[in-house]
Structures are given as structure tokens and as C-alpha cells.
């Protein structure tokens, strides 16, 4: 996990008094562009604590910075990358899982007398592929989690792109003089930019640098048409195994999150099988779970750890400790969404412990609930059609919620988190399965209780997990760490907002006013840290479908299906 930062000067501001120089004009103030970029990018340096690379091009009028977390090609992968003729520059954040295949395609296209291409890292292949095939073919081919900025000096074109799901964050903005700013985290932009926007997932900007105009490059059929394809359990299993395999490319110590729920447990189990083929039968994957003492997840995470033979660690936190980090987590996560704040604090504390043990990459199970309709409120979907379009909506909004939480809570400590369930090819396969198969259904044992993610459980109903975990009901992460966590943080936050303050919520926050005192408290802190309305507009709330008769509270315990028989 890295951080990228970029400023492209408006052509009218490229240099002061018409000359090219290391100068940036902001209103009546003039300062060093190099120093400004290094300072502003430093606000996200936690994302890449291993190295800071900066390239300033006075003539072209831009500066590019990358904060590096060294995970792959540790000795050769420092950025920004520069092409051999020094005309194409790149700063990238993420992992390109098919970079070897892309490098092979480049080599197949090389002419007589050209030297073979050897990538310096997985992201370095972006430049080579772009030079050989162009940006359209690049965006059709690339697979991974990524956000990158590429500048082509030959035609003064800027290429900005983000992965189809939005696993990796990316923001852009304009300052008052029309200079373009781009960064992995909003905090790098808010001080200078008059407006800040989310760069949307599955989009690309290619062209002039004076204004960012994202265009969609990834659009699958399931996004526009309700699918009718029946599930193939063998293919489902194979697709997930291939996704986990691709996500295991790593040159540093790695581990896996293990909450004891279905999704993270499956990822850890599959990874263990793959790594034992690679390293021998005695290999033990390092796994981690977090919660309050006595939290419901620990019983099941231990059960899985014993079953797969992992080297497991339980990380305990206290409620008081968690409450200490509310402001910190709003700063790091850059959101005031209730469920994201509740979930991010345990994740943040867990990531800190994992990094302290020398782990740099961790696998996780995010995304399965969106793909398979795994949240308990999906039990109340009124029709097959509404079920499908709600899963589409959840997948397309992942970058506002689970992806944002998982990425930023881990990156806060320089830890890379990977999500095999959100592999592009796996997502496209699952979302192309008809709703009839993806909807909750009764297990074939005579019980009437509906089971969410039924086909996923059936696909792996063979020596992957203990039955108690394979068929365990969905327990949302912020609930699973311990029920008293949500109960207490809700009361604590509400106690900091008076009745009088809350009665004026719509006056203070006329756009998306907070519906509860807890929401008001988080919004209030967010406003102090990110004072522009455009910053608040980058947030979307995660709530169940109240028009389906579901509780508006995002906790799974508030849904009718929780623990129902």
C-alpha cells in the first residue's frame, strides 16, 4: 500500500512571470513547488513509510510524489518510475496481479534488435504496456487493485485511473488558480483546494491536465442487465482459489485476518493450502483476530485456526481504548459514516499490532457480503430483481464503505491489505449468477432458517472449514468484536451532543443532516478536520434498506434475521 501525490500547474501558472521554475503561486503567495509537494504528500506518508520519491519537471510544470511501502520487488520498485527515454513518468499505488502476463505481452511485441523488457516491479509494467499498446489496451488488460497517475511529456497528456471496485482510494481537486491536485488521501488536498472530489472507480482520465474528466472504462453486463446464469459450484470454487493465488505474490512477510466469519476464514484456508504446496506441509500462515475479551468472534476464529493449523494471534482491546481513537479514525478514514467509524477502530488497532510483528501484507475477506447478498437485511429482499440491484448498488458503493475502511485503517500503519473476493474476474463471475442462486435459502437439512451466501458455503463444503464456521450466521465485524462495543460507542458519542444542538442539526448540516446524535458527533469532528462542504460530499452513509422494512441502524443485530431460527 502506497500513497501518490501530483500537482499539474495550470499553463498560465507554469512558472512565475512566464518563466519555468520551481515555483507555485497560490493567490498572492509564491513558494517552492518541490517543498509544497513534499510537505502535502507527507500527510499521507503513513501509507508508504519505506521511501519517498519525488520528481519535479519545471519545464512541463508538474510534480509527482510516491510514498512507498515495499512489498514486491523491494530493491528495484522505488517510484516515480521514468521511461527509458524519460518522457513518461508514473506514480502508482496498489498491486498489478497480472503484471507478468503484461510484461510477456510487451516482450512479444518487441522488434528486432530491441532489448528484452524486465519489469522493475509490478507497477513498472504500466509504463511499458502504455508505450507499446496505448492507454485503451492498457485499461482493458490490467488486473489488480490500483490508482495511478501517468504523465506523457511527448503529447502533454495526463492519464489517471482507478481500479474497477475502488479498492485503492483516489481524490482530485482544483485550487483557486486552476492547478490540478491528485492524492491517495483527501487530507493532502483540503488545505489548498477549493473543491475536492472522489475519483470514481472503474474510470480513467486521459488527455489535458488542466481539468480532470473521468470516463468509465469498466462496465460489465451485470451492471445494466439482470443476470440469468445458474451457478456452477465447481467454477465458483476454482475462481476464488485462483483469486487468492494471484493475491499471494509478495516478497515480504504476510498474514491473514481471521475473524471467524465465513469470508476471512475461507481466504485463510485457501491461502494455507496454496502456501503449503509452495513451502511444504509444515507451513503455518500467521492469522489475526481482534475483539473485546469474550467477543463472539474469538470462539470461531480459534476453531478455524486449529482446523487449518495457522499461527494465530488474538488481539484484545478495551472499550476505553477504542473510544480514545474516534478522532484519529475519522482523520485517517476521512468519513463520518456511522458503520465505518464503528468498524474502523478495531481494524485500526489490529493493524497496528500486525505491523508491530513485522508483517507488511495481510489478506482479508471484504466484498463477499456485497457480491452474495450476505448482510442480514438481504433476507427481507422483496423480489429477485430487487435483490440483484441492491447487490449491484452495494458493490458499486464499496469504495465509500468497506474498501475505504479496510484500506485506510491498515494503511494508517503502513500495512497493505488485499481482498481476493474483489478480484475483477471473480466479481464479474459472481455478479453474473442469477439472483435465484445468490439469495438466502434454507440449508438441506430440514431446517427452515434461511442461510445467506448459501452457494459460497456449498462450493466449499469439503475440508476447507469446520461445519460450525462454514454454516455460521453472518456477524458483522463491529458486532463480532463484542456486542458491548457498538452499544457503548453509540451512547458515548450521543452523550457529547445536547438536545439543543441536535435540534439544530439541519441548520448546521443542511446537506445530508445527521439522523442521530451519534452521527452528529462524528459529523462534527469531520467538519473540524475537513471543513469544506466538498469534503463532506465525498461521504455516503451505509444503511440497510428501510423501505424493505429493515432497521436503519447498520448493526446486524438490529435486523430481524439475526439469530432467528
What's the pLDDT, averaged over the residues?
A: 93
Give me the secondary-structure category.
alpha+beta
C-alpha Rg (nearest Å): 24 Å
Shape: globular
Biggest beta-sheet profile: 6 strands, antiparallel
Number of contiguous helices = 23
Strand-residue proportion: 15-25%
Total strands: the figure is 21
Strands of the biggest beta sheet: in what spatial order?
Answer: 4-5-1-11-10-12
Give the fraction of residues assigned to helices: 25-40%
**Any low-confidence stretches, pLDDT <50, length ≥5?**
none
Q: How far is the first residue's CA from the last residue's CA?
A: 42 Å
Q: In words, what does this structure look like?
A:
It is built from 23 helices and 21 strands. It is an alpha+beta fold. The chain is globular. It starts with a strand and ends in a 29-residue tail after the last helix.
